[in-house]
Amino acid sequence: MPILATPFAQLDLLRQPEMPNESLQAFDAADEYLLNHLHEQGLSADTRVLLLNDGFGALAASLAPHCRVTSSGDSHLGQLALQKNLARNNLAADAVRFVPASEVAAGPFDLVLIRVPKTLALLEEQLIRLHGQLAPGARVIAGAMLKHLPRSAGDLLEQYIGPVQASLAVKKARLLSATPQTKPAPTSPYPTRYLLEKPKLELSNQANLFCREGLDIGTRAFLPHLPKSLLPLRVADLGCGNGVLGIVYALGNPEAQLTLVDESYMAVQSAADNWRAALGERAVTLRADDGLAEQPEQSLDLVLCNPPFHQQQVVGDFLAWRMFQQARAALVTGGELWIVGNRHLGYHTKLKRLFRGVEQVAATPKFVILKATR
Protein backbone atom coordinates (compact mmCIF):
# COMPACT_ATOMS: atom_id res chain seq x y z
CA MET A 1 0.00 0.00 0.00
CA PRO A 2 1.66 3.31 -1.06
CA ILE A 3 2.28 5.83 1.71
CA LEU A 4 1.44 9.53 1.29
CA ALA A 5 4.58 11.23 2.62
CA THR A 6 4.51 15.02 3.02
CA PRO A 7 5.95 17.48 5.57
CA PHE A 8 2.65 17.18 7.47
CA ALA A 9 2.43 13.41 7.88
CA GLN A 10 3.10 9.94 6.56
CA LEU A 11 -0.24 8.30 5.95
CA ASP A 12 -1.50 4.87 4.99
CA LEU A 13 -4.70 5.57 3.04
CA LEU A 14 -7.55 3.47 1.62
CA ARG A 15 -9.94 4.11 -1.23
CA GLN A 16 -13.64 3.37 -0.95
CA PRO A 17 -15.08 1.01 -1.83
CA GLU A 18 -12.23 -1.30 -0.92
CA MET A 19 -11.39 -3.60 -3.82
CA PRO A 20 -9.30 -6.80 -3.78
CA ASN A 21 -5.90 -6.30 -5.40
CA GLU A 22 -6.54 -2.54 -5.58
CA SER A 23 -4.02 -0.89 -7.92
CA LEU A 24 -5.36 2.67 -7.57
CA GLN A 25 -4.09 5.00 -4.85
CA ALA A 26 -6.20 7.09 -2.48
CA PHE A 27 -4.11 10.16 -3.36
CA ASP A 28 -2.23 11.59 -6.32
CA ALA A 29 0.48 14.11 -7.18
CA ALA A 30 -1.99 17.01 -6.95
CA ASP A 31 -2.60 16.17 -3.26
CA GLU A 32 1.16 16.07 -2.69
CA TYR A 33 1.64 19.38 -4.54
CA LEU A 34 -1.07 21.13 -2.50
CA LEU A 35 0.36 19.90 0.80
CA ASN A 36 3.98 20.71 -0.07
CA HIS A 37 2.99 24.18 -1.28
CA LEU A 38 0.97 24.78 1.87
CA HIS A 39 3.90 23.78 4.08
CA GLU A 40 6.14 26.26 2.28
CA GLN A 41 3.54 29.01 2.77
CA GLY A 42 3.10 28.26 6.46
CA LEU A 43 0.11 27.14 8.49
CA SER A 44 -0.87 27.88 12.11
CA ALA A 45 -2.94 25.82 14.53
CA ASP A 46 -5.83 28.31 14.47
CA THR A 47 -6.02 28.52 10.64
CA ARG A 48 -9.57 27.68 9.54
CA VAL A 49 -9.26 25.46 6.47
CA LEU A 50 -12.03 24.35 4.12
CA LEU A 51 -11.31 21.37 1.87
CA LEU A 52 -13.54 20.82 -1.15
CA ASN A 53 -13.73 17.44 -2.95
CA ASP A 54 -10.95 15.79 -0.95
CA GLY A 55 -11.57 12.42 -2.66
CA PHE A 56 -10.62 9.89 0.02
CA GLY A 57 -9.49 12.19 2.83
CA ALA A 58 -5.79 12.53 1.96
CA LEU A 59 -5.75 16.29 2.55
CA ALA A 60 -7.95 16.19 5.65
CA ALA A 61 -5.98 13.43 7.37
CA SER A 62 -2.72 15.23 6.57
CA LEU A 63 -3.86 18.59 7.94
CA ALA A 64 -6.11 17.56 10.84
CA PRO A 65 -3.36 17.62 13.51
CA HIS A 66 -2.09 21.02 12.34
CA CYS A 67 -5.14 23.31 11.92
CA ARG A 68 -8.93 23.52 12.09
CA VAL A 69 -10.26 21.46 9.19
CA THR A 70 -13.70 21.36 7.60
CA SER A 71 -14.15 19.03 4.63
CA SER A 72 -17.03 19.19 2.18
CA GLY A 73 -17.81 16.95 -0.77
CA ASP A 74 -20.63 15.21 -2.59
CA SER A 75 -19.54 11.60 -2.12
CA HIS A 76 -20.78 9.43 0.72
CA LEU A 77 -18.03 6.97 -0.21
CA GLY A 78 -15.60 9.86 0.19
CA GLN A 79 -16.94 10.52 3.68
CA LEU A 80 -16.61 6.82 4.56
CA ALA A 81 -13.02 6.88 3.29
CA LEU A 82 -12.28 9.95 5.42
CA GLN A 83 -13.65 8.25 8.55
CA LYS A 84 -11.72 5.04 7.88
CA ASN A 85 -8.49 6.87 7.04
CA LEU A 86 -8.64 8.99 10.19
CA ALA A 87 -9.00 5.83 12.29
CA ARG A 88 -6.38 3.98 10.24
CA ASN A 89 -3.84 6.70 11.03
CA ASN A 90 -4.75 7.07 14.72
CA LEU A 91 -6.55 10.37 14.31
CA ALA A 92 -9.72 11.26 16.22
CA ALA A 93 -13.02 10.81 14.39
CA ASP A 94 -13.96 14.41 15.22
CA ALA A 95 -10.62 15.83 14.06
CA VAL A 96 -12.34 16.89 10.81
CA ARG A 97 -15.81 18.38 10.46
CA PHE A 98 -17.56 16.96 7.39
CA VAL A 99 -20.28 18.90 5.58
CA PRO A 100 -22.20 17.18 2.75
CA ALA A 101 -22.28 19.15 -0.51
CA SER A 102 -26.06 19.39 -0.13
CA GLU A 103 -25.40 21.83 2.74
CA VAL A 104 -23.40 25.06 2.97
CA ALA A 105 -20.10 24.92 4.87
CA ALA A 106 -20.30 27.96 7.16
CA GLY A 107 -17.12 30.02 7.53
CA PRO A 108 -15.32 32.24 7.85
CA PHE A 109 -12.37 30.34 6.37
CA ASP A 110 -8.77 31.53 6.15
CA LEU A 111 -7.79 28.98 3.51
CA VAL A 112 -9.77 27.02 0.94
CA LEU A 113 -8.13 24.06 -0.80
CA ILE A 114 -10.05 22.66 -3.78
CA ARG A 115 -9.59 19.44 -5.69
CA VAL A 116 -11.11 20.33 -9.06
CA PRO A 117 -14.05 17.93 -9.55
CA LYS A 118 -14.97 16.13 -12.74
CA THR A 119 -18.27 18.04 -12.90
CA LEU A 120 -17.46 21.73 -13.29
CA ALA A 121 -21.03 22.66 -12.35
CA LEU A 122 -20.21 21.34 -8.86
CA LEU A 123 -17.11 23.54 -8.76
CA GLU A 124 -19.20 26.53 -9.85
CA GLU A 125 -21.81 25.93 -7.14
CA GLN A 126 -19.08 25.51 -4.51
CA LEU A 127 -17.41 28.78 -5.55
CA ILE A 128 -20.75 30.57 -5.45
CA ARG A 129 -21.31 29.30 -1.90
CA LEU A 130 -17.94 30.70 -0.81
CA HIS A 131 -19.37 34.21 -1.15
CA GLY A 132 -19.41 35.74 2.31
CA GLN A 133 -17.57 32.77 3.85
CA LEU A 134 -13.97 33.97 3.36
CA ALA A 135 -12.05 35.73 6.12
CA PRO A 136 -10.02 38.88 5.31
CA GLY A 137 -6.81 37.86 3.55
CA ALA A 138 -8.10 34.37 2.79
CA ARG A 139 -6.33 32.20 0.23
CA VAL A 140 -8.08 29.97 -2.30
CA ILE A 141 -5.98 27.29 -4.02
CA ALA A 142 -7.22 24.66 -6.45
CA GLY A 143 -5.25 21.62 -7.51
CA ALA A 144 -5.64 18.95 -10.18
CA MET A 145 -3.76 16.62 -12.44
CA LEU A 146 -3.14 18.35 -15.78
CA LYS A 147 -5.24 15.81 -17.69
CA HIS A 148 -8.23 16.68 -15.47
CA LEU A 149 -7.78 20.46 -15.43
CA PRO A 150 -9.78 22.28 -18.12
CA ARG A 151 -9.16 25.96 -18.76
CA SER A 152 -12.72 26.70 -17.68
CA ALA A 153 -11.84 25.75 -14.07
CA GLY A 154 -9.53 28.76 -13.91
CA ASP A 155 -12.21 30.91 -15.55
CA LEU A 156 -14.68 29.95 -12.83
CA LEU A 157 -12.16 30.78 -10.09
CA GLU A 158 -11.57 34.17 -11.67
CA GLN A 159 -15.29 34.83 -12.12
CA TYR A 160 -16.32 34.03 -8.56
CA ILE A 161 -13.16 34.59 -6.46
CA GLY A 162 -10.63 36.85 -8.20
CA PRO A 163 -7.43 36.93 -10.29
CA VAL A 164 -5.84 33.52 -10.81
CA GLN A 165 -2.18 32.58 -10.99
CA ALA A 166 -1.23 29.16 -12.34
CA SER A 167 1.79 27.32 -10.94
CA LEU A 168 4.39 25.42 -12.87
CA ALA A 169 3.49 21.79 -13.41
CA VAL A 170 5.02 19.29 -10.96
CA LYS A 171 4.61 15.54 -11.59
CA LYS A 172 1.85 16.39 -14.10
CA ALA A 173 -0.09 18.36 -11.47
CA ARG A 174 -0.84 22.09 -11.32
CA LEU A 175 -2.14 24.55 -8.75
CA LEU A 176 -4.36 27.57 -9.40
CA SER A 177 -4.15 30.31 -6.75
CA ALA A 178 -7.01 32.82 -6.69
CA THR A 179 -6.82 36.15 -4.87
CA PRO A 180 -10.26 36.97 -3.40
CA GLN A 181 -11.80 40.24 -4.50
CA THR A 182 -14.96 41.96 -3.29
CA LYS A 183 -17.70 40.93 -5.69
CA PRO A 184 -21.50 41.30 -5.71
CA ALA A 185 -23.42 38.30 -4.40
CA PRO A 186 -23.72 35.81 -7.27
CA THR A 187 -26.95 34.09 -8.28
CA SER A 188 -26.66 30.33 -8.61
CA PRO A 189 -27.95 28.70 -11.81
CA TYR A 190 -28.61 25.51 -9.78
CA PRO A 191 -30.71 23.53 -9.39
CA THR A 192 -31.57 23.17 -13.07
CA ARG A 193 -34.97 21.84 -14.12
CA TYR A 194 -36.37 19.96 -17.08
CA LEU A 195 -39.74 18.56 -18.07
CA LEU A 196 -40.56 14.89 -18.58
CA GLU A 197 -43.46 14.37 -20.98
CA LYS A 198 -44.65 10.90 -19.99
CA PRO A 199 -45.53 10.98 -17.20
CA LYS A 200 -45.65 14.76 -16.93
CA LEU A 201 -43.05 15.71 -14.34
CA GLU A 202 -40.75 18.66 -13.70
CA LEU A 203 -37.46 17.37 -12.34
CA SER A 204 -35.03 19.41 -10.25
CA ASN A 205 -31.30 18.71 -10.47
CA GLN A 206 -28.58 19.95 -8.14
CA ALA A 207 -25.20 20.91 -9.56
CA ASN A 208 -23.42 17.55 -9.36
CA LEU A 209 -26.12 15.47 -11.03
CA PHE A 210 -25.49 13.44 -14.16
CA CYS A 211 -27.53 14.82 -17.11
CA ARG A 212 -28.77 17.97 -15.35
CA GLU A 213 -30.27 19.44 -18.53
CA GLY A 214 -32.42 16.52 -19.64
CA LEU A 215 -33.24 12.86 -19.09
CA ASP A 216 -30.30 10.59 -19.93
CA ILE A 217 -30.89 8.25 -22.84
CA GLY A 218 -30.46 5.07 -20.80
CA THR A 219 -33.21 6.05 -18.37
CA ARG A 220 -35.37 7.18 -21.31
CA ALA A 221 -35.05 3.66 -22.76
CA PHE A 222 -35.85 2.09 -19.37
CA LEU A 223 -38.96 4.06 -18.32
CA PRO A 224 -41.50 2.51 -20.74
CA HIS A 225 -40.57 -0.99 -19.52
CA LEU A 226 -40.77 -0.55 -15.73
CA PRO A 227 -42.69 -3.46 -14.21
CA LYS A 228 -46.18 -3.01 -12.72
CA SER A 229 -47.79 -4.66 -9.70
CA LEU A 230 -50.78 -4.08 -7.45
CA LEU A 231 -48.91 -5.70 -4.55
CA PRO A 232 -47.19 -3.69 -1.78
CA LEU A 233 -43.72 -4.59 -3.07
CA ARG A 234 -40.60 -3.32 -1.34
CA VAL A 235 -38.65 -1.57 -4.09
CA ALA A 236 -35.28 0.20 -4.23
CA ASP A 237 -34.06 2.69 -6.82
CA LEU A 238 -30.33 1.97 -6.53
CA GLY A 239 -28.13 4.87 -7.64
CA CYS A 240 -31.27 6.97 -7.85
CA GLY A 241 -29.83 10.24 -9.20
CA ASN A 242 -32.71 12.71 -9.31
CA GLY A 243 -35.11 9.90 -8.40
CA VAL A 244 -36.84 9.60 -11.76
CA LEU A 245 -36.91 5.77 -11.92
CA GLY A 246 -38.28 5.39 -8.40
CA ILE A 247 -40.79 8.22 -8.83
CA VAL A 248 -42.18 6.96 -12.14
CA TYR A 249 -42.37 3.43 -10.73
CA ALA A 250 -44.19 4.72 -7.63
CA LEU A 251 -46.71 6.62 -9.76
CA GLY A 252 -47.58 3.41 -11.61
CA ASN A 253 -47.54 1.18 -8.53
CA PRO A 254 -49.56 2.90 -5.80
CA GLU A 255 -49.02 0.22 -3.13
CA ALA A 256 -45.24 -0.04 -3.53
CA GLN A 257 -42.90 0.93 -0.68
CA LEU A 258 -39.95 2.82 -2.16
CA THR A 259 -36.35 3.30 -1.04
CA LEU A 260 -34.21 5.75 -3.06
CA VAL A 261 -30.48 5.57 -2.43
CA ASP A 262 -27.42 7.21 -3.97
CA GLU A 263 -23.88 7.90 -2.83
CA SER A 264 -24.22 11.55 -3.95
CA TYR A 265 -25.69 13.90 -1.36
CA MET A 266 -26.86 16.25 -4.09
CA ALA A 267 -28.60 13.37 -5.85
CA VAL A 268 -30.52 12.46 -2.68
CA GLN A 269 -31.38 16.14 -2.17
CA SER A 270 -32.73 16.32 -5.74
CA ALA A 271 -34.62 13.04 -5.38
CA ALA A 272 -36.25 14.27 -2.16
CA ASP A 273 -37.39 17.51 -3.83
CA ASN A 274 -38.71 15.64 -6.86
CA TRP A 275 -40.51 13.00 -4.80
CA ARG A 276 -42.36 15.67 -2.81
CA ALA A 277 -43.29 17.54 -5.99
CA ALA A 278 -44.65 14.40 -7.67
CA LEU A 279 -46.00 12.35 -4.76
CA GLY A 280 -46.54 14.82 -1.92
CA GLU A 281 -46.46 13.19 1.50
CA ARG A 282 -46.41 9.57 0.28
CA ALA A 283 -43.99 7.65 2.47
CA VAL A 284 -40.52 7.02 1.09
CA THR A 285 -37.05 6.19 2.40
CA LEU A 286 -34.30 8.43 0.98
CA ARG A 287 -30.67 8.12 1.98
CA ALA A 288 -27.09 8.75 0.93
CA ASP A 289 -25.32 5.44 1.31
CA ASP A 290 -22.79 3.00 -0.07
CA GLY A 291 -25.40 1.52 -2.39
CA LEU A 292 -27.35 -1.20 -0.58
CA ALA A 293 -24.48 -2.08 1.76
CA GLU A 294 -26.62 -1.22 4.81
CA GLN A 295 -29.84 -2.77 3.47
CA PRO A 296 -30.89 -5.86 5.47
CA GLU A 297 -30.54 -9.13 3.58
CA GLN A 298 -33.65 -10.40 1.79
CA SER A 299 -35.60 -7.24 2.57
CA LEU A 300 -36.49 -6.16 -0.99
CA ASP A 301 -38.72 -7.59 -3.70
CA LEU A 302 -37.46 -5.45 -6.58
CA VAL A 303 -34.39 -3.33 -7.35
CA LEU A 304 -34.29 -0.84 -10.23
CA CYS A 305 -30.87 0.35 -11.38
CA ASN A 306 -29.19 2.41 -14.09
CA PRO A 307 -25.64 1.64 -12.94
CA PRO A 308 -22.75 4.11 -13.23
CA PHE A 309 -19.59 3.24 -15.14
CA HIS A 310 -17.14 5.62 -13.43
CA GLN A 311 -16.04 6.84 -10.01
CA GLN A 312 -14.66 10.38 -10.23
CA GLN A 313 -12.27 10.15 -13.19
CA VAL A 314 -11.85 6.35 -13.05
CA VAL A 315 -13.91 4.46 -15.65
CA GLY A 316 -14.87 0.81 -15.19
CA ASP A 317 -17.67 -1.57 -14.26
CA PHE A 318 -16.44 -2.23 -10.70
CA LEU A 319 -19.19 -0.07 -9.13
CA ALA A 320 -21.88 -1.72 -11.25
CA TRP A 321 -20.64 -5.21 -10.33
CA ARG A 322 -20.70 -4.22 -6.67
CA MET A 323 -24.25 -2.89 -7.00
CA PHE A 324 -25.35 -6.18 -8.58
CA GLN A 325 -23.84 -8.10 -5.65
CA GLN A 326 -25.53 -5.78 -3.15
CA ALA A 327 -28.88 -6.16 -4.95
CA ARG A 328 -28.65 -9.95 -4.86
CA ALA A 329 -28.00 -9.91 -1.11
CA ALA A 330 -30.89 -7.50 -0.45
CA LEU A 331 -33.46 -9.34 -2.59
CA VAL A 332 -35.74 -12.13 -1.38
CA THR A 333 -35.65 -15.46 -3.22
CA GLY A 334 -37.60 -14.82 -6.41
CA GLY A 335 -36.93 -11.08 -6.16
CA GLU A 336 -35.85 -9.23 -9.28
CA LEU A 337 -33.13 -6.77 -10.30
CA TRP A 338 -34.07 -4.71 -13.37
CA ILE A 339 -31.29 -2.74 -15.03
CA VAL A 340 -30.55 -0.75 -18.16
CA GLY A 341 -27.06 -0.82 -19.64
CA ASN A 342 -25.08 -0.16 -22.77
CA ARG A 343 -25.02 -3.26 -24.96
CA HIS A 344 -21.23 -3.34 -25.12
CA LEU A 345 -20.83 -3.60 -21.34
CA GLY A 346 -22.00 -7.22 -21.32
CA TYR A 347 -24.02 -7.02 -18.13
CA HIS A 348 -26.03 -10.08 -19.22
CA THR A 349 -22.99 -12.31 -18.76
CA LYS A 350 -22.04 -10.75 -15.42
CA LEU A 351 -25.56 -11.06 -14.00
CA LYS A 352 -25.67 -14.77 -14.91
CA ARG A 353 -22.83 -15.32 -12.45
CA LEU A 354 -24.99 -13.98 -9.60
CA PHE A 355 -28.62 -14.72 -10.48
CA ARG A 356 -30.41 -17.95 -11.37
CA GLY A 357 -32.32 -16.36 -14.25
CA VAL A 358 -31.47 -13.46 -16.56
CA GLU A 359 -33.64 -12.36 -19.46
CA GLN A 360 -33.74 -9.43 -21.85
CA VAL A 361 -36.91 -7.38 -21.38
CA ALA A 362 -36.32 -4.91 -24.22
CA ALA A 363 -33.57 -3.40 -26.32
CA THR A 364 -32.69 -0.36 -28.41
CA PRO A 365 -29.73 -0.09 -30.79
CA LYS A 366 -27.62 1.15 -27.85
CA PHE A 367 -29.20 -0.20 -24.65
CA VAL A 368 -30.60 -3.40 -23.19
CA ILE A 369 -33.08 -3.71 -20.33
CA LEU A 370 -32.43 -6.86 -18.32
CA LYS A 371 -34.34 -8.68 -15.57
CA ALA A 372 -32.32 -10.87 -13.21
CA THR A 373 -34.18 -13.17 -10.81
CA ARG A 374 -32.63 -14.27 -7.51
TrEMBL record:
Keywords, comma-separated and alphabetical: Cytoplasm, Methyltransferase, rRNA processing, S-adenosyl-L-methionine, Transferase
E.C. designation(s): 2.1.1.174
EC class of the enzyme, as a word: transferase
GO CC terms, sorted: cytoplasm
Domain of life (superkingdom): Bacteria
CDD domains: AdoMet_MTases
Molecular functions per Gene Ontology: 23S rRNA (guanine(1835)-N(2))-methyltransferase activity; nucleic acid binding
Domain RlmG N-terminal: residue ranges: 2-181
Subcellular location: Cytoplasm
Keyword Cytoplasm tagged: yes
Residue ranges occupied by any Methyltransferase small domain in the UniProt entry: 201-371
Catalysed reactions, as listed in the record: guanosine(1835) in 23S rRNA + S-adenosyl-L-methionine = N(2)-methylguanosine(1835) in 23S rRNA + S-adenosyl-L-homocysteine + H(+)
SUPFAM superfamilies with a match to the protein in the record: S-adenosyl-L-methionine-dependent methyltransferases
Stored InterPro entries: DNA_methylase_N6_adenine_CS, RLMG, RlmG_N, RsmC/RlmG, SAM-dependent_MTases_sf, Small_mtfrase_dom
Family: Belongs to the methyltransferase superfamily. RlmG family.
Record function comment: Specifically methylates the guanine in position 1835 (m2G1835) of 23S rRNA.
Name of the molecule in the record: Ribosomal RNA large subunit methyltransferase G
Native source species: Aquipseudomonas campi
